[in-house]
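hey
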């Protein structure tokens, strides 16, 4: 069998050291006090300035290193000879805080190769789609096959509710959105785009 067209979505459980998530939450709320943010895809939520990979907070530096190394590991899944030293990697990152009712409209991340979302604080929701990230299959005509063989890449949408400390990496061209947070707890994520340029 030859794989035709694929849009992989990687859900990675990171080895975050004890206390890092708590430090991130504290630093993120401190950053928000001095950053009015702006609106892109976010509704009722806060989107920080996209300077995350330039910041000096220890917790932010640590999570940026985890995100960058995870992109390298993802590339090695497809090319075992991939050497990150052969590329100039450009990363842009930002913070999203979605309070109750906060969501993100359908969008992509143009001019990038891989995008990712690190889950700092993901409220647990037993029912419904609260706070779930939803990806749209670029090949929508696969819905008939999805009825026969579900969860094999033909489904029109994929919804994921990662846990705190997990990282989702996906091709930047994938349309995605975030369902409204129905919890009383803020949904806090760190998102990034990466572009790999051969030296």
């Amino acid at each position: 069998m030859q794989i035709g067209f694929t849009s992989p979505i990687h859900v990675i459980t990171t080895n975050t050291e004890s206390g890092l998530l708590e430090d991130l939450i504290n630093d993120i709320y401190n950053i928000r006090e001095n950053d009015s943010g702006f609106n892109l895809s976010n509704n009722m939520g806060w989107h920080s300035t996209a300077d995350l990979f330039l910041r000096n907070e220890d917790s932010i530096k640590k999570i940026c290193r985890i995100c960058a190394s995870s992109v390298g590991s993802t590339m090695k899944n497809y090319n075992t000879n991939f050497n990150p030293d052969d590329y100039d990697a450009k990363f842009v990152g930002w913070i999203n805080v979605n309070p109750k009712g906060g969501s993100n409209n359908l969008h992509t991340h143009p001019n990038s190769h891989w995008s990712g979302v690190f889950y700092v604080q993901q409220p647990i929701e037993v029912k419904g789609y609260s706070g779930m990230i939803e990806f749209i299959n670029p090949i929508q005509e696969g819905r008939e096959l999805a009825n026969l063989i579900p969860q094999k890449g033909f489904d029109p949408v994929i919804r994921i509710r990662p846990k705190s400390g997990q990282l989702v990496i996906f091709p930047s061209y994938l349309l995605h959105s975030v369902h409204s947070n129905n919890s009383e707890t803020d949904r806090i994520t760190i998102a990034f785009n990466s572009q790999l340029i051969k030296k």
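Residues 138 and 174 are 7 Å apart (CA to CA). The chain has three helices and eleven strands.
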